[in-house]
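Aim 2 progress update. The chain analyzed this quarter is reproduced below.
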Amino acid sequence: MDNRDTTPSLSKAPNPEYDHLSNDELQELLDPALLPRHIAIIMDGNGRWAELRGLPRISGHTEGIKSVREMTALCLELGIPNLTIYAFSQENWKRPAHEINALMLLLERFLQSELDELVERGIRFRAIGRIDSLPASALKWVRKVERETAQRDKLTLTVALSYGGRSEIVDAVRRLAADCQAGAVSPTQIDEPFLEKYLSTQGLPDPDLLIRTSGEARISNFLLWQLAYTEMYFTPTLWPDFRRREGLLALLDYQRRERRFGRLPNPSYPQ
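Predicted structure tokens:
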């Protein structure tokens, strides 16, 4: 059965090499041995998606939730154990109050509606960032969903909220400095793995693949420490249009990369 997405889009970029293939055929091209263990996504373009259609900006964020669901489902299906999404940055607090309020309400409704599904599908929900900055009602639901999904182990869905990469490192150094001052840590113990224990992503592998939508080619203060050797995939597709097919295309692109981590090229690596 041909399950190509034929929905008109204002933002999809052409992929002529794969245009004739169905989603199932694209998936068959994936090598299970080369799938990432951790995907991070900067979900950009929600507001533009809505504006192109003459809709309120929040409509783009609402539609973008469908893309979150599709990427979560794809990770579960393929056995990719970690997905991290950039939902709200510290810089986003500078947006108009009415938009921030709408986004916080949308977050709260998402958590309320998805909790049972997360538990049933074995998805652990984690929030990173300066979470205490969230409104009390949204914060209550973030903590509730974290608690009730804490023992799920098929997929860890990490959501960055009120997050900034630089502030994450500053917060980690502050905690480490406090432990040094208290005598619990000696400066001679500190190396990269030791410092990583103080980051909010402690326990997660670094992302293998970063996806950013909407045509922007920057990381916008996201996971600055963790992205040191991450492969990056930039697409002009706006986030609400980034569905299963786009996810498969990103994974196929990732599998063409040779990840050297500073080593010389491997002559046996498939080109």
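The beta strands are 38-42, 82-89, 123-128, 155-163, 209-212, 231-234. Residues 1-14 have pLDDT under 50 and may be disordered. These observations will guide the mutagenesis experiments scheduled for the next reporting period.
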